[in-house]
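can u do me a favor
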């Protein structure tokens, strides 16, 4: 697939079929992750492939996070709340859950660059997944001490994202993008 086509067509998916994801495909996705750029080629990331026990704990934490966040908002539509609760129960039954994490940074440069690098890793992974007909969602846990403890991430480290990935028969339409013109500022 052309890179630009994968970039355009990749969609966030929150519902998955029962089809399992085999190790070859999973390895391709991880392999794409390690080719992300990093400051000074530091490659600070770590992948955590999440098994069933950890998933159970994480989904409780995620649901709590949602209950104390968007689900508390009275103006949030009820159908969206129901969809979030359904997804949170078992991450949409995604066959694979992977966290991309970074260790504690020991200087300002790393504090700034580690999250950027984690983002590049995750985008690489999502594009490679898409090229293999695998879709998913990039879940943001913020700085959630409970999630960090479940994933055995040292204090000061962070979760760049948790990817719930698998096959889906329900690819949504692309959410609109703001044009390049509106997003571009030119300086003399
Ligand atoms: C840093 C980041 C965090 C995100 N966190 C969540 C999340 O917690 N839950 C979720 O359902 N989607 C999450 N998303 C997915 C976005 O909602 C999605 O990318 C956006 O709506 C655009 O849709 P598209 O990916 O199909 O183009 C996240 C995306 C990014 C880049």
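np, heres the sequence
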């Amino acid at each position: 697939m052309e890179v630009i086509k994968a970039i355009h067509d990749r969609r966030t998916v929150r519902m998955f079929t029962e089809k399992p994801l085999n190790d070859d495909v999973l390895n391709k996705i991880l392999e794409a992750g390690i080719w992300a750029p990093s400051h000074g080629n530091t490659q600070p990331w770590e992948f955590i492939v999440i098994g069933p026990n950890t998933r159970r704990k994480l989904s409780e934490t995620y649901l709590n996070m949602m209950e104390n966040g968007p689900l508390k908002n009275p103006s949030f539509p009820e159908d969206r709340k129901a969809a979030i609760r359904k997804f949170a129960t078992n991450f949409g039954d995604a066959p694979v859950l992977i966290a991309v994490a970074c260790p504690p940074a020991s200087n300002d440069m790393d504090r700034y660059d580690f999250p950027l690098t984690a983002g590049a890793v995750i985008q690489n992974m999502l594009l490679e997944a898409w090229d293999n007909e695998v879709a998913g969602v990039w879940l943001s846990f913020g700085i959630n001490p409970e999630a960090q403890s479940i994933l055995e991430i040292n204090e000061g480290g962070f979760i760049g994202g948790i990817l719930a990935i698998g096959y889906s028969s329900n690819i949504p339409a692309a959410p609109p993008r703001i044009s390049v013109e509106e997003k571009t500022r030119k300086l003399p």
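The domain at 3-170 is CATH 3.40.109.10 (NADH Oxidase). hope that helps!!
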